[in-house]
Amino acid sequence: MKASKESGKFNEREIARNQAFENIWSNEINEVFADVAFYYDRVNLAASLGMISWFRNSFVSIIDLKSEQKVLDVCAGTNAVGIALLKKQPGVEVFAVDRSPEMQQVGQEQAKIHGFHIDSTITDVHKLPFPDNHFDVVTLQFASRHLRLIEVIQEIKRVLKPGGHFYHSDMLRPSNKIVEKAYFAYLTGCVSVVAWLFKSNEYSLGCKKYFVDALKMFYSPEEMTQLLFDQGFTEVTSKSLLGGVVGSHKAVWTT
Ligand SMILES: C[S@@+](CC[C@H](N)C(=O)[O-])C[C@H]1O[C@@H](n2cnc3c(N)ncnc32)[C@H](O)[C@@H]1O
Fold first, then answer.
1. Is the CB–ligand 1 distance for residue 35 below 6 Å?
2. 44-53, 175-184, 186-195, 242-251: segment of lowest average pLDDT
């Protein structure tokens, strides 16, 4: 697959996603993560029916690391990715960036428990507070559905060194219509059960529909591959689990 002449279609989708979710992204989503921060890992375990470790291990397995490389984990949350990368290659330097102080507080505690240091910056990732050509590796897991993705990718390209790698993983929109239908039906029920189980606050309850709608407007694994090529990445490869319910992508930034 190469860069398509249809990159306009991704720009149009981004405009539509932004119009649909702008209000939630700018206000409510931060309150949702403040609410779930202290039981986020248990929510993931319940919502994924115990498969969260499989999803995470599958993502980490495609990430190549060398000692002394600088890694930026975008939307780092509770630092699950950063900790897994430090376990894999203790010689890397990990920087976490996330807008939620609560998620990062848990992330810092988790890093400490594992005996690791992860540098933490609290900010909106649509502008990354790092110099150009700074990181060897950038990772982004389970967050791109909540972002103006192409805008964040522009920033990721800016901070990546030439030849650096971008690794992306998220819940995606399955391209198979039968899988898609079953998946959205499961998610609709699951979000309600999880909200009840964990006594969610008013913001989390208000976002129940959003979590399914955001996926309905998101990209399939194939679209994500094409989007990354269109954004100028090379050697884009992907790995899908459960028929595209979760997808991971690896891409090289050469310019
Ligand atoms: C579902 S969590 C994923 C966390 C982590 N990457 C993981 O794999 O568990 C999504 C994270 O994205 C963060 N986030 C969402 N929108 C953001 C934004 N515009 N800027 C910075 N962080 C954002 C949230 O605060 C939250 O910590």
1. no
2. 186-195
- Residue 31 Cα to ligand 1 midpoint, Å, equals 12
d(Cα 222, Cα 234) in Å, to the nearest integer? 15
Residue 237 lies in a domain: yes
Please give the average per-residue pLDDT across 171-181, as a whole number.
90
Residue 122 lies in a domain: yes
Within a domain: residue 14? yes
Distance 5 CA to ligand 1 centre (A): 31
* Residue 210 placed within a domain: yes
Q: How many domains does the chain have?
A: 1
Long-range contact list for 41-46, CB < 8 A, 24+ apart?
Answer: 41/78, 41/80, 42/198, 43/194, 43/198, 46/193, 46/194, 46/197
Structure tokens at 212: 């399914």
Domain that holds residue 229: 7-177+203-253
From the CB of 143, is ligand 1 less than 6 Å away?
Answer: yes
**Residue 149 Cβ contacting ligand 1 at under 6 Å:** no
- Give nearest CA residue, ligand 1 atom 13: 75
State residue 6's pLDDT score.
63
What CATH number has the domain bearing residue 107?
A: 3.40.50.150
Residue-wise pLDDT for 42-82, tens only, equals: 888 888 889 999 999 999 999 999 999 999 999 999 999 99
Is any atom of ligand 1 closer than 6 Å to the C-beta of 204? no
Mean pLDDT of 85-110: 98
